[in-house]
Design goal:
The longest helix is centred in the last third of the chain and has 23 residues. With 401 residues, the chain is α/β, with parallel strands linked by helices. The protein is globular and about 70 Å long. Helix 6 links the parallel strand 12 and strand 13. Helices cover 38% and strands 20% of the residues. The chain folds into two domains: 126 residues, no CATH class; 247 residues, TIM Barrel (Alpha-Beta Barrel). The termini are far apart. Strands 10-11-12-13-14-15-16-17 form an eight-stranded parallel beta barrel, surrounded by eight helices. It is built from 14 helices and 17 strands. Keywords: Lyase, Metal-binding. This is HpcH/HpaI aldolase/citrate lyase domain-containing protein. Belongs to the HpcH/HpaI aldolase family. InterPro entries: Aldolase/citrate-lyase_domain, HpcH-HpaI_aldolase, Pyrv/PenolPyrv_kinase-like_dom, Pyrv_kinase-like_dom_sf. GO terms for molecular function: aldehyde-lyase activity; metal ion binding.
């Protein structure tokens, strides 16, 4: 971490806990959870204070001091240590004392928080909570997703098709970089999507919740984004005009025409201004190239400002060519290759869906330069696991007999 340019302090916060949850509507002050190390150094590098664990009731009042307020149960970020328990009101005093330094430092980091009336930034792992804490979920999560693409060259996710929050939470805990709620090929609606996005956040706050839209209509896109999706996968985008419509629905003015209202995406109205600014930068727009018309119009589609990625739908693409599921056909191979190489040439992320979970296929696409890969969906993982499990059970019974 670098020196604060004004105050010359280094502020480090290390999260050793296991989970981070976003809590709405609740506020109490003054606690950090067990498992944190907070260090504040001066210009010479000498440690001025280090405290972990313990409780100091005499210092509880310091937690009310301006931007240094620590709110363990605030709307915003709550951290849970591996062992639980409250810790360190002494930490509250230190952070209160150096709150201006903390604010200036955090301003350089990821995500958007409103901290004591001022806009600051924070990242997953930050141990600061304030009386007025409002976090931009899209900003924090999309930083993580884009960092994965930048550092590894790819991200791997999956689809949630069942509408089950339990499945969504389990899949998030498994470590997928993103999970897309499939509102196109399932009966999932907006209220269900809301619950699924909450379940994804509970399973893994760094997992990006996306929505594969049922269509590219403005009203529907706005509702899914308001539910807390950090991006969309838009089906059947075959023209530049359709791509422009999707971007306009996802982005707030002046880059789009998404309506501003109290919703989960902006902390239920507690971060309107900050949320709008942060989400315009952070939201992810992926259009699906799954028709021969999209292939023919691809240059115009990916030239639309705000389009981040193109996701190849091999089944629909092959069907539009009269070659349904003939993925080895030379024409289908050529169409997929054309999409991928065009995206690479223009600096657009190319993605593809490996419908049946196949690690070898995922690895092959990564080697080929695909950056956004969806592997399977909850129903294929469940079906394969059940089938494999019963095969092993029957084999075990036969071997024992």
């Amino acid at each position: 971490m670098g020196d604060d340019p004004v105050h010359g302090h280094i502020i480090a916060a290390q999260l050793r806990g296991s989970c981070m949850y976003v809590h709405m509507f609740r506020y109490t002050c003054g606690v950090l959870r067990n498992g944190f190390t907070v260090r504040i150094d001066d210009d010479s590098g000498d440690m001025r204070r280090r405290q972990q664990g313990g409780k100091d009731p005499m210092e509880q009042g310091a937690a009310h001091n301006g931007a240094g307020v620590l709110a363990g149960h605030a709307f915003g970020v709550r951290f849970h240590g591996q062992q639980g328990g409250d810790c360190g009101h002494g930490v509250a005093r230190v952070l209160a004392k150096h709150s201006r330094t903390l604010v200036r430092y955090i301003q350089q980091k990821r995500g958007m928080i409103r901290c004591g009336g001022r806009a600051v930034k924070a990242s997953y792992g930050s141990s600061v909570h304030t009386r007025s804490v409002v976090i931009s979920l899209a900003g924090r999560i999309m930083e993580s997703l884009k960092a994965g693409i930048a550092s590894r060259g790819h991200v791997v996710g999956s689809f949630v098709n069942t509408g089950s929050p339990i499945c969504a939470e389990i899949m998030a805990r498994a470590g997928f970089d993103f999970l897309a709620v499939d509102a196109e090929h399932s009966p999932v609606d907006v209220p269900q999507t809301f619950s699924l996005i909450q379940a994804i956040a509970s399973g893994n706050p760094a997992c990006a919740p996306l929505v594969r839209l049922p269509h590219t209509g403005y009203a529907e896109i706005k509702r899914y984004m308001d539910a807390g999706a950090v991006g969309v996968i838009a089906p059947m985008v075959n023209t530049r005009a359709q791509a422009e419509e999707v971007v306009a629905a996802v982005k707030y003015p002046p880059f789009g025409r998404r309506g501003v209202g109290y919703c989960r995406a902006n902390g239920y109205g507690t971060a309107i201004a900050e949320g709008v600014a942060a989400d315009n930068d952070a939201t992810f727009v992926c259009v699906q190239a799954e028709h021969v018309d999209a292939v023919n119009n691809l240059d115009e589609i990916i030239a639309v400002p705000g389009v981040d990625a193109v996701f190849i739908g091999p089944y629909d693409l092959s069907a539009s060519m009269g070659l349904t599921a003939q993925f080895d056909h030379p024409d289908v191979i050529a169409a997929i290759s054309r999409i991928h190489t065009t995206c690479q040439a223009k600096g657009i992320i190319s993605g593809i869906h490996v419908v049946q979970p196949d690690p070898a296929a995922v690895a092959r696409y990564i080697r080929d330069g695909y950056g956004f890969i969806a592997c399977g969906l909850d129903i294929t993982f469940l079906a394969n696991a059940c089938s494999d499990g019963m095969t092993r059970i029957r084999q075990g019974i036969a071997d024992a007999g």
